[in-house]
Amino acid sequence: MRKVYLDNASTTYVSSEVLAEMLPCFNTIYGNSSSLHGFGREASAIVDRARDRVAHAINAQKSNEIYFTSGGTEADNWAIKGIAHAYANKGKHIIVSSIEHHAVLDSCKQLEKEGFEVTYLPVDKHGLVNIADLLHAIKKTTTLVSIMTVNNEIGTIQNIKAIAKTAHEYGIIFHTDAVQAIGAVKIDVQDMEIDAMSMSAHKIYGPKGAGALYLKNGVRIENLFSGGNQERAKRGGTTNVPAIAGFGKAIEIAVRDLSINQQKLKTVREYFITKVKERIHYIQVNGHPHQKINGTVNISFDMIEGESILMLLDLEGVAVSTASACTSNSLEPSHVLRAIGVPDEIAQGSIRFSFGKNISKSDVDYTIDVLEKAVAKLRGISPITKAGRK
Ligand SMILES: *Cc1c(COP(=O)(O)O)cnc(C)c1O
Predict the structure, then answer these.
(1) What is the CA radius of gyration of the chain?
(2) Does residue 170 sit in helix, strand or coil?
(3) How far, in Å, from the CA of 3 to the mean position of ligand 1?
(4) Is 326 a catalytic residue?
(5) How many CA atoms lie within 13 A of 274 on its CB side?
(6) How many whole angstroms separate alpha carbon 15 and alpha carbon 268?
(7) What secondary structure, in 3-state letters, does 4-27 show?
């Protein structure tokens, strides 16, 4: 059976160039990068090179502004909790959008339990944060604004530079979760005035379990982990050299190939949406019509459940996702679709197709065929009708 992987926003395969970079770090250059002997220095040179690559990829001023983490979740937790705590004497109010990843939202929930105040900004029907809403939310006690660069469910790209500038006018620190943006949108932390930024390797053809927090020099943060002196005494724990080596290579390639990949994915996206609209009725494409990344397409299919579509596609070898990977095993409708005003009964019928850089036209055609059949089958037998749900 043909297998088509359309869940690249959940995770990607590790590219062969990345794997080749990692392999020697398992059994040849295996020293602890904190050790002073030759084995350690060899490993630490690998980590230094990866740090330079990450810094270069996002145009950080200095490589020492990159702190390696176990991934995007840790970077988000660290940024939100660590910055909020470091500036708590100045104020205990932070602002985030209502469509953030759960790593950010749940960190905010934790802060609220500790007595911090959090404002969750609304977004418009395309998923964009409005600057006027941000201005309205800012208080004397606001210390941090965190707005994701690209949303993982609908692919909308925020006006990051304008948001960062607004925060800075009030002396507020600006963090962004750029996990879905790397390789899809040009990121220049200096030009975009980003103070802190979360990244992850496994969404960009790197390994799982590696990522980084960019933290502009001068921005204070409290540690999340207590332990050793790794990462300039900001993040204890033995350095994951192979994964970091892979991350460095992956981000270098992601930036190198950004425009060619995006051009290809734009063609795929337009073709896919056109064909699906032609062949399947009662659907809506969610997210911004043009201010969005090309790899992610979110579609709501009226009158049927997303889970049922996912199962039928899976039987034909096509892998998709219902909402974000983290919520796909709960029946709560997506907080993102809710925030852009999709009614719950429509949101329940939503599927995220996230295309990878290796996608072929015949895989797209195959997907459209099995999707058309799945939807027809489900609508034929669905107890949910236009008149109302069962
Ligand atoms: C995947 C993802 C994360 C979490 O990253 P991990 O490396 O899997 O922990 C955070 N934010 C966004 C937007 C993501 O898509």
Answers:
(1) 22
(2) coil
(3) 24
(4) yes
(5) 7
(6) 20
(7) EECECCCCCCCCHHHHHHHCHHHH
Alpha helices in the chain (DSSP H): 16-22, 24-27, 38-57, 72-86, 102-113, 131-137, 160-169, 230-233, 241-256, 258-279, 306-315, 335-339, 344-347, 361-381
> Residue 387 — very low, low, confident or very high, per pLDDT cuts 50/70/90?
very low
Residues 6 or more apart whose Cβ sits within 8 Å of residue 316: 1, 2, 370, 374
Distance 102 CA to ligand 1 centre (A): 9
Cα 94 off chain centre by? 20
The per-residue pLDDT for range 233-288, each reduced to its tens digit, is: 999 999 999 999 999 999 999 999 999 999 999 999 999 999 999 999 999 999 99
d(CA 216, CA 61): 8
pTM above 0.90, yes or no: yes
Tokens in use for 159? 């006006």
Q: Is the CB of 179 under 6 A from ligand 1?
A: yes
User: From CA 181, how far away is CA 359, in angstroms rounded?
Assistant: 19
Percent of the chain with pLDDT over 90: 94
- In the chain, the amino acid numbered 302 is D
State whether the beta carbon of 287 lies less than 6 angstroms from ligand 1: no
Query: Starting at the edge strand that comes first in sequence, how are the strands of the sheet with 283-286 ordered?
Result: 283-286, 296-301, 350-354
- Other beta carbons within 10 angstroms of residue 289's beta carbon come to 8
How high is the pLDDT of residue 333? 85
Among 88, 273, 326, 384, the one annotated catalytic? 326
CA-to-CA dists, residue 252 to 19, 101, 258, angstroms: 14, 24, 10
Beta-carbon contacts of residue 384 (< 8 Å; ≥ 6 apart): 303, 304, 305, 345, 390
Picking from 273, 323, 318, the residue whose alpha carbon sits closest to that of residue 297 is: 273
**Do residues 300 and 342 make contact, with C-beta atoms less than 8 angstroms apart?**
yes
